[in-house]
Amino acid sequence: MIYELPPMAVEEAVRAALAEDLGRAGDITTQATIPAHAQANAAIVARGRGVVAGLAAARAAFALTETNIMFEARANDGDRIAPEMLIALVSGPARAILSAERVALNFLGRLSGIATLTARYVEAVAGASARICDTRKTTPLLRALEKYAVRCGGGVNHRFGLDDAVLIKDNHIAVAGGVVPALQAAKANVGHLVKVEIEVDTLDQLQEVLDEGADAVLLDNMTLDDLRRAIALVGGRMICEASGGVTLSNVAEIAKTGVDLISVGALTHSAPSFDFGLDIEIS
User: Fold this and answer.
1) Which residues pair with 131 in a beta bridge?
2) Which residues are catalytic?
């Protein structure tokens, strides 16, 4: 099941993008060349193979530009799509469609690109128990949308921000004075519903975590052999997440070590935009 985004979150992001694009004077090209009364029919078409995400954002781009635009989705977020597949039909005032086109396609392309890359990682670990999850390496102010796209691609979400879970990283450990002091302070100062995860680089650090206790451990940049040893040491006592240097070429081997989660920053910081076209007919 793909949990949908709150409409307000989508609208806020799209409204800001439209304001950026339309600027102080609106779409002067379209206003100069297209009669005010002109109507248009258009089709949004996939130019490649992948997974679609961001239809609500595309719909909002047109609706916020002109309330009389009709947007009919012919696919659902999370659907597999192929070249020349019809994704949506758009009809209404031609000026508004042309003015909203780039913002709509930018959101659709960006989010579908993330969903498509996520799906490739998910497919690469098929048969293993490990799940692919994202990170906070997202585009500023677009995190909710980009993490939604990860879900559309079959991945799962890590924490959304600094306020919804404790993740003690190497710099926290250094300043706090070690693994044990950092864990003890975290557990003493957060609420009973807040999960505590800690990053470790070595098996010695992992043993300290096991002795002190945590909800999850992030095994950072470990070799495959060390990952296997770490899983054996943990013995199911806490969630194990592998992170660092994960690529499509090595993710399957990482999954075979028995980790529960594999976090991949590339899902959101390096996903190529998916190509869509808007084919328009002026009437």
Assistant:
1) 261
2) 102, 137, 169, 199, 220
- C-alpha distance across the termini of the chain, in Å: 40
pTM of the model: 0.96
Neighbours of 252 (CB within 10 A): 17
In a domain, 1, yes or no: no
Q: Tell me, rounded to whole angstroms, the distance of Cα 35 from its chain centroid.
A: 39
In percent, the amount of the chain with pLDDT more than 70 equals: 99
Strand partners, 53: none
Residue 265 and residue 276 in one domain = no
- Kindly give the residue spans of alpha helices, DSSP state H, lying in 5-85: 7-22, 28-33, 55-65
Strand, coil or helix: 267: helix
Tokens of 142: 């677009």
Residues 206 and 92 in one domain: no
Over residues 31-58, the pLDDT tens digits come to 999 999 999 999 999 999 999 999 999 9
